[in-house]
Specification:
Chain lengths: 287, 792, 166
């Protein structure tokens, strides 16, 4: 209940924050704190320095940047869930944000924070993967872009370096024939709580045929991950129910399934297929 | 909205204005000047010998006042237990630990953050030993849970109750003979009734303040049994009970987990005396999982023998119940409460045997229902399987085997207990009619035709509460271990004050049941003093009469009856005074609207204030009448009370994921007369949520090394608003003849009725696929697995 | 660290460690003990307060994060002695038993109705998933919020269930 002692800075500029990270190898970035603070209270994680980016202006917006939508580091889950730009261009991420945590968590936690935390049972990483997001990481020494597909490395491990801040997530603008969706089984059943398993899907149809697709899984393996074989199998089909069922059967190719308190390996493997199917179906319906 | 204060009326709760504005004070809200904070060093091992404890680093920290180990408190002895069978808990681990979370040392510091820092700095070296976690393994005595135990099997509860072993064996032989008949089916199933964590939303908390001048303690504790705690503190410190004042202020839910004396309560008192300052401790949620009691934890096999046309020939239950590592308040007595209701609403030869088994896990004790949900669960599940086996509707099978209404009052249950009143068939028929059971079945058929897996669950229950008859005091239904050799009486003081208002003082320990409201209604009804002018006080041992506490759905039936009687006696005396003042005959005095009236003479009346004023001026009283207007009644019921009911649930299962959704939940409960229907409904609602929580979500999961894997609310998901349906309630009314108000008790009925209703519904939904049983909790993974297993 | 914030319309300053949780600032230093603590994982919601108008779990926020913020706790909800309609609803519809979760539940319900003045039962139930109650089974909490919503819309609240079933 009581965190260990730590030092705290709340810079008012990104540069200051990046410098603090550069200067302190045992520092941790905090945005909403919804994952970090409970870990610190349980004393499972005790950084020496917390760099609170919550007071940095200019990071709390969602903007239309031409070919993509930019979601800033301080955009809360609730904002992501209800923003019309996100809904129109990355419905899977919007739905995942709407099913993240509970109302109070969504008011405080940030989409970028949830992505950076890289929890295997979180919702939004799957949405970001399916929507083809690009992560913009900044450090004192510069900026780099990381494709979502390369961002989730392992359990609670992203591709961010310790001195980097995820300042923005870029979501490609949706074009004609595109649709995306997210579906999950929550730990208490329904859509509530962390995902036992879930999937996000994005498709682009052209001339009655699925021209392009991405399907991402959460809760199944050691990290949120793309299921490329599903995408490959649905591309070129008409997106019919039968085609979706057949494609979803490929959900586990290249994916290592891990059991936990909420599901055996067999069950999670099954759910991966079920939710790949459901997410694909909804994404195709959304086209 | 109705605002009548007579019995049976809806009255907004007296308790609420403070609670909805945040001004109600729970233990952690009470701040004393100079108070210190305790934190515990707890064992990470389920079984280990302690080779050393080094507190030097902790003691060197700024703001740390003390670190205590068993060497400091061994002289106080182990924690008192009301039923001291099995290993008793040392106040702090004494050379060995026997479950994860066992307290090894206690740190006291100026601040709660520092106390936790210091607890982390205490270095304990352990020599791990093999832990015994599962019931069957423990019962084999392959490894002892504790070196002091001769056997891990601590005791056995067998029935019918009151019979010698050879007579019980005869009952069993009779049932066995029935199994050989060629017109019967035998249905048998081993089932787990999983361990649960009570999860009162207010964590337990205690604050102790020792007064050296009086050699006395003030203790504020989040407890359901303030008098028992006062007795325990007094006994362990060798003081008279008058030297210990326990206050249970607002208590944020109990459900049995606060029905215990805990080592932390004794230890903060010790530290307060030692350090000369108030000391407090408030548990964390993780500690609530590991160190506060858990409930349930049975593995047993139910066997039912019955004819193909629905007549039950015999029922057996045989199995093991988990006691955990140490016996505390009631621990080994909990299965006994199951024995009371082991034959449910049915008239059938019944054999029952549950062995109490220790394990290297947290102590188990009373959790809402305590033994009765377990007993009813096994019975109602196996009856459902039997009905399916013979192809009869589950309602019909139950109807055929009920104890007939004609046998009441005082019917004797097959397990040998006298039951007060009951009319089970009327109650079940009311359920079926009121909710249109046939319509539910038609709806189910239609859904199935659409390929939806919709199921309907029905279950009946009988519950026993209102403990306890004086005759049970020697069986542990008392606080004798805490130096209070009483039966589980009810008590109530009713005092009419000189201004005509009334103060009611009761010995209960409510934790949300609305006693201030209900008791004011009882007294208002008796005296005709307006509800608003009655103040009900409870929870403070310095001002309340000896009281047993609030648990086992007993408060209204037992303490309420005491208060009812006390009010009646005050009324008698007031009638004498009023008759004197009005120059009327005592028999003609009636009380209403804040005054005494002469029957038939509307103009002739005297207000309560005038009656009271005279009562406190003895020279104005009629000759031979003593001054004052106050009565204390100690009431001992002749029997427990036996509420009952039947519940219906409709569920839908997603066969692809195993997800269960409750579509409808409907009840027909019977708790006798009802004092405040709003409060009674609320008790049922909450009870249902806990029963449904057990059915679908909750489980204290231990790994093979004895680690609790589901000790936080992240992994122990109690239901949220989004997980539960709106409940449909209705009731039949079969008053008890045990007490004057005819009330039985309702605190646990919902919980006792719910779990098997939901499981029966889920199995009904999946029975076309061949699913016969799924052990709780019906988490999606288990439901899905059951479907796979059934499909082969 | 020195922080200044507004709590229930009053400006307060405090010197806190960085690790001090907002809920402890409120409870221990400001003695606003109506905000409760029921867990350490941010699940129970008993500690819910409003920070700059939104419902937040004060056990999952550092006091230093609240520097400069405008906070409302349960103690600041009633105005001039008049209960907020949500408080009234909880009282009228028996939306509480032990009362421990109630302040947080009420703060969440107020935020819910501020965002959606006429929520469906389903929206109420899912909107309150961040607040655990172990006593009421939520039935009457939902009814309390429906009552309050009606009141806030200037409508007659639906009759209580116990009158409907009687």
């Amino acid at each position: 209940m009581f965190p260990r002692q730590f030092d705290y800075v709340a810079p008012t500029s990104l540069d200051e924050a990046l410098q603090a990270l550069a200067d302190n190898p045992n520092a941790k970035v905090m945005s909403g704190g919804m994952s970090l603070i409970p870990l610190m209270k349980l004393r499972l994680f005790s950084p020496q320095l917390v760099v609170d980016i919550g007071r940095i202006p200019g990071l709390d917006g969602i903007s239309d940047d031409g070919d993509h939508i930019a979601v800033g580091a301080l955009v809360r889950h609730a904002q992501t869930a209800s923003d019309p730009l996100v809904a129109a261009n990355a419905a899977a991420l919007a739905q995942a944000a709407a099913w993240t945590g509970d109302a109070q968590v969504r008011n405080r936690g940030t989409t970028c924070g949830a992505l950076a935390h890289a929890d295997i049972a979180a919702d939004q990483p799957a949405g970001a993967l399916a929507c083809g997001a690009t992560m913009v990481a900044r450090s004192a020494s510069g900026s780099r872009e990381i494709a979502a597909a390369d961002f989730f490395v392992d359990t609670l491990t992203s591709a961010l370096n310790d001195d980097e801040i995820l300042v923005e997530v870029r979501l490609p603008k949706a074009g004609a024939g595109e649709g995306s969706a997210y579906d999950k089984l929550g730990r208490r059943g329904g859509h509530s709580d962390y995902a036992v398993a879930g999937a996000a899907a994005w498709v682009r149809k052209a001339n009655g045929t699925v021209a392009e697709a991405r399907v991402a899984l959460t809760g199944v393996g050691s990290k949120p991950t793309l299921a490329p074989a599903v995408a490959a199998a649905i591309v070129g089909t008409d997106g019919s129910a039968d085609a979706v069922v057949a494609a979803a059967e490929h959900a586990l190719e290249g994916v290592t399934v891990l059991e936990d308190l909420y599901g055996s390996e067999e069950y999670k493997a099954h759910l991966a297929k079920v939710y790949a199917r459901r997410a694909l179906t909804s994404a195709l319906d959304a086209v | 909205m109705s605002t009548t204060s007579v019995l049976g009326g809806i009255v907004r709760r007296r308790e609420d204005p403070a609670l909805i504005q945040g001004t109600g004070a729970y233990v952690d809200d009470i701040k004393l000047p100079g108070e210190l904070h305790a934190a515990f060093v707890r064992s990470p091992f389920a079984r280990a010998d302690i080779t050393s404890v080094d507190a030097s680093a902790a003691l060197a920290m700024d703001g740390v006042r003390a670190v205590y180990t068993i060497d400091d408190v061994r002289d106080l002895g182990p924690l008192l237990a009301q039923v001291p069978v099995g290993a008793l808990r040392p106040l702090l681990a004494d050379g060995a630990v026997h479950h994860v979370g066992e307290a090894v040392a206690m740190v006291v510091a100026d601040d709660r953050y520092v106390a936790q820092d210091a607890a982390d700095a205490v270095v304990v070296e352990y020599e791990p030993r093999e832990a015994v976690v599962t019931l069957k393994d423990s019962a084999s005595d392959r490894v002892k849970v504790n070196d002091s135990l001769e056997s891990n099997v601590l005791m056995s509860w067998a029935g019918p109750f009151g019979m010698e072993p050879d007579q019980i064996a005869e009952v069993k032989a009779g049932i066995d003979a029935g199994k050989a008949r060629d017109d019967v089916v035998v249905v048998s199933q081993e089932m787990t009734n999983q361990r649960l964590i009570p999860v009162a939303i207010e964590p337990r908390a205690v604050l102790a303040d020792y007064n050296a001048g009086y050699n006395s303690f003030n203790v504020w504790s989040s407890t359901q049994m303030p008098h028992a705690l006062a007795g325990a503190v007094a006994t362990m410190f060798g003081l008279p009970t008058t030297s210990v004042r326990v206050v249970a202020p607002e208590v944020g839910g109990g459900f049995g987990c606060k029905l215990n004396v805990y080592n932390d309560e004794i230890l903060v008192a010790f530290a307060s005396r030692h350090l000369g300052a108030p000391v407090r401790w408030t548990e964390s949620r993780r500690e609530a999982g590991n160190s506060t009691i858990q409930g349930r934890g049975w593995v047993a096999t139910a066997t039912l023998v019955g004819t193909r046309d629905g007549e039950i020939v015999g029922y057996e239950l045989e199995g093991l119940a988990d006691m955990g590592a140490y016996s505390q308040n009631f621990t080994v007595a909990i299965p006994f409460l199951g024995l009371f209701v082991g034959s449910g609403q049915y008239k059938m030869p019944t054999y029952w045997k549950i062995d109490c088994v220790a394990t290297n896990t947290a102590t188990t004790d009373a959790y809402r229902g305590a033994g009765r949900p377990e007993a009813i669960y096994y019975l109602e599940r196996i009856i459902d399987m039997y009905a399916r086996e013979i192809g009869l509707d589950p309602a019909e099978v139950r109807m055929k085997n009920f104890v007939p209404a004609a046998e009441f009052p005082a019917a004797t249950s097959p397990l040998g207990f006298a039951m007060d009143t009951g009319d089970y068939a009327t109650n079940l028929q009311a359920l079926l009619d009121h909710y249109d059971y046939a319509g539910w079945r038609a709806e189910q058929e239609a859904a199935r035709a659409e390929g939806r897996n919709v199921g309907i669950g029905l279950a009946s229950y009988v519950e026993v509460c209102g403990f306890a008859p004086a005759g049970l005091a020697d069986l542990g239904f008392s606080w004798s271990a805490y130096g209070l050799p009483t039966a589980f009486n009810g008590s109530g003081v009713v005092r009419v004050n000189p201004d005509g208002t009334a103060t009611v003082v009761i010995g209960t320990g409510p934790s949300g049941q609305g006693h201030q409201t209900t008791w004011a209604q009882i007294v208002s009804d008796q005296l005709g003093i307006p509800f608003e002018n009655i103040r009900v006080r409870h929870g403070d041992t310095a001002e309340s009469p000896m009281g047993v506490g609030t648990f086992g759905s007993r408060s209204a039936a037992v303490d309420g009856s005491a208060t009812y009687e006390a009010a009646a006696r005050v009324r008698e005396k007031a009638a004498k005074i009023a008759a004197h003042l009005l120059e009327a005959s005592e028999e003609d005095i009636v009380f209403a609207d804040g005054a005494a009236h002469v029957a038939g003479s509307p103009d002739s009346s005297v207000p309560w204030a005038d009656i009271a004023s005279v009562a406190y001026q003895p020279h104005k009283l009629p000759e031979g009448t003593e001054g004052g207007l106050e009565t204390h009644v100690v009431y001992s019921p002749a029997n427990a009370t036996w509420p009952f009911g039947s519940h219906l649930a409709m569920v839908e299962v997603d066969a692809d994921t195993g997800n269960v959704e409750i579509l409808r939940y409907a009840c027909m409960d019977d708790c006798g007369n009802v004092i405040n229907p709003m409060i009674v409904d609320g008790q049922i609602h909450g009870g249902l949520a806990q029963g449904i929580g057990q059915a679908l979500f909750e489980e204290a999961i231990y790994d093979e090394a004895g680690n609790l894997l589901s000790g936080s609310l992240v992994d122990y998901p109690i239901p949220t608003a989004g997980d539960l349906p709106a409940y449909e309630l209705a009731r039949t009314t079969t008053p008890t003849d045990i007490n004057a108000m005819g009330v039985k008790g309702i605190g646990e009925a919902g919980t006792i009725g719910a779990a098997q209703t939901v499981v029966n519904a889920v199995v009904d939904a999946l029975s076309p696929m061949g699913v016969r049983h799924i052990d709780m909790p019906l988490r999606p993974r288990k439901v899905w697995q059951a479907i796979q297993d059934a499909r082969g | 660290m020195e922080i200044t914030l507004k709590v229930n319309r009053r400006e307060v300053s405090a010197d806190v460690e960085p690790r001090t949780l907002l809920v402890h600032l409120l409870r221990e230093r400001l003695r606003l003990t109506g905000t409760h603590v029921g867990c350490e994982t941010g699940y129970c919601g008993a500690c819910t307060v409003h920070v700059n108008g939104t419902a937040v779990k004060s056990c999952t926020m550092l006091a230093v994060q609240a520097d400069g913020a405008d906070i409302t706790t349960i103690e600041g909800l009633a105005s001039n002695g008049d209960l907020h309609p949500v408080q009234e609803g909880f009282w009228e519809r028996h939306g509480l038993q032990c009362g421990y979760c109630t302040p947080g539940m009420i703060m969440s319900a107020v935020a819910l109705l501020d965002a959606n003045s006429n929520p469906s039962e389903d929206e109420i139930r899912h909107g309150l998933e961040g607040n655990l109650c172990r006593c009421t089974g939520y039935h009457n909490i939902v009814r309390a919020v429906e009552y309050a919503g009606a009141k806030m819309r200037g409508e007659e609240p639906p009759p209580p269930d116990w009158e409907v079933s009687a």
